[in-house]
Amino acid sequence: MIRVLVPLDGSRLAERALGALREVGGRSGAELLLLRVVAPVNPVRLGRVAPSGPGRTLAARRRIAKRYLVRVRDRMARRGFRARALVRAGDPAAQILKFAREEGVDLIAMSTHGRSGLRRVLFGSVAEAVIRRTPLPLLVVRAGAARPRRRAP
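User: That's the sequence. What structure does it adopt?
Assistant: Structure tokens below.
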């Protein structure tokens, strides 16, 4: 069975990778590993110290991320996919790469904003960091890319 890592950030754009997988993977019996990486909050960077401390904020964000992934997992299960919902904390690109190694995934499927120039420098690109550092095959869906069309049987 093919194991596909699908990093999700909660956005519709990120979920476009799921649409592409429905087109190619739904018939293959692929297992989807839905991963949401929650970056730790640095209260000093926010300009103030959080009253409950950064740990509690991170715990709350992890719970929210898990609820989101469970909804996505259940939706994909209704479409015939086996899926697991997993949350990690840390740098998104580093955690995606670490998770892929630890779980022995066969493919990473993810979306990208397709930023260039100054926007890429300012905001970075998780997808670009993963592309540059992984030996695994990738399915990258770019923002603005045409949605896959279904062919008549």
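The longest strand covers residues 31-38.
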